[in-house]
Amino acid sequence: MGTLAATEAALVEGIDAAQMLANVEQWCAINTGTRNIPGLASQAALLADAFAELPGEVRLVPAAPVEAIAADGRAVQIEHGAHLVLSVRPHAPRRYLLTGHMDTVYPADHPFQTLTWLDDETLGGPGTADMKGGIAVILAALKAFEAASLVSPYVGYDVLINSDEETGSLASAPLIAELARAKAAALTYEPSALPDGTLAGARGGSGNYSAIVTGRSAHAGRNPQDGRNAVVAAADLALGLKALSGDGLAINPARIDGGSANNVVPDHAVLRFNIRPRGEEDATRFAAAIGPLLREVELAHEVSIHLHGGISRPPKPLTPEAETLFELVRKCGAALGQSIRWQNSGGVCDGNNIAALGVPVVDTMGVRGGAIHSPQEYMIVPSLAERAALSALVLHRLSGGE
């Protein structure tokens, strides 16, 4: 086990666990499903007030335009909430990026809306772990870091709390790229990979696609031979995509929209699917295979297919630079009496986007908890202060502190 220097002990002693919990309870009382724009606006206003306690400029950045495919194959614009950015000492030569997200997977009409104490140390509720608890960790860690007497004017950071992480960060991807540029390191506050605090190491990638199939309608009884069935073609494409899965590439055909009355040969369909490449070579293999598969289905069914979408989360390998950052986190944990380990994960997050820009990142610095994306989501409350101390110490040592 490592030890804390006197300055490091002072750094973590002032962390206010009660205030952290109060923040989480206040923030989780607001529904912030990704499509709940008013809820996200209310949340952003509270976060702007909270992060204004830190030095620097707080601003709300409008979401980038995002196009999606409707059930009828039309391209439509999707509205997103604004993103919160705090910039501290923007001209410092050594700077970090800390990221979190204010949105959750629970829409405004979802039944899971309230907080419940499951036992003396476990709080259940929407967003407790994923990741309003993580936002509380960011704020408390930075307040502790700024209170230290050895904060260097040559060290600065940006904080990004986006509003669309749960749907792939398409409306914040340009902002992530802008803020990650030239950063020495990044920390992202997704909950730990396991309730014991295990971090996520390497991650696979993720891409979402819509295949728009256009056929030809006809009467299903009088002249079906004149029709070109778009739903059947979409189903054939789904089987072809599933056959591409394996050896580091998982493909999930998730939904087919299309068709009308039972006595009409359907002339349109939209097949939606997700891909999960384990590494860059798997993404490359998919890119090489999808074109020939589309042409094969087009020829077999005499339809046309337009593919919309792409890989929004590139695979995140554990690079030597990332391993160095993980080791620093492990040593800081040991000095605080926290056992830190990591394992590879099939999930994705904004850490994928950051790593793709060449910035070392640890992306599960948030609270310990579990059952995320379900009505059983919970946060282990003592981990609020634990993780805030860990982040404050990591930032301190990254900045040359003893």
Describe what you observe in this structure.
The active site is at 103, 165 (proton acceptor). Residues 203-294 form the Peptidase M20 dimerisation domain. This is Acetylornithine deacetylase. There is one protein chain. It is built from ten helices and 20 strands. The chain folds into two domains: 6-67 and 77-204 and 316-398, Zn peptidases (Aminopeptidase, 3-Layer(aba) Sandwich), CATH 3.40.630; 206-313, Alpha-Beta Plaits (2-Layer Sandwich), CATH 3.30.70. The longest helix is centred in the C-terminal third of the chain and has 22 residues, at 280-301. The protein has 402 residues and is of the alpha+beta class. The protein is elongated and about 85 Å long. The mean pLDDT is 96. The strands form six sheets. The protein has a six-stranded mixed sheet, with helices on both faces. It has a four-stranded antiparallel sheet with strand order 6-7-20-19, with helices on one face. The protein has helices at residues 6-13, 17-28, 37-51, 128-147, 173-180, 230-243, 280-301, 320-335, 350-355, 383-398, and strands at 57-61, 67-69, 75-77, 83-88, 94-101, 116-119, 122-124, 155-162, 185-188, 199-203, 206-214, 218-219, 249-258, 264-265, 268-277, 304-313, 342-345, 361-362, 369-370, 378-380. Helix 1 (6-13) crosses helix 10 (383-398).
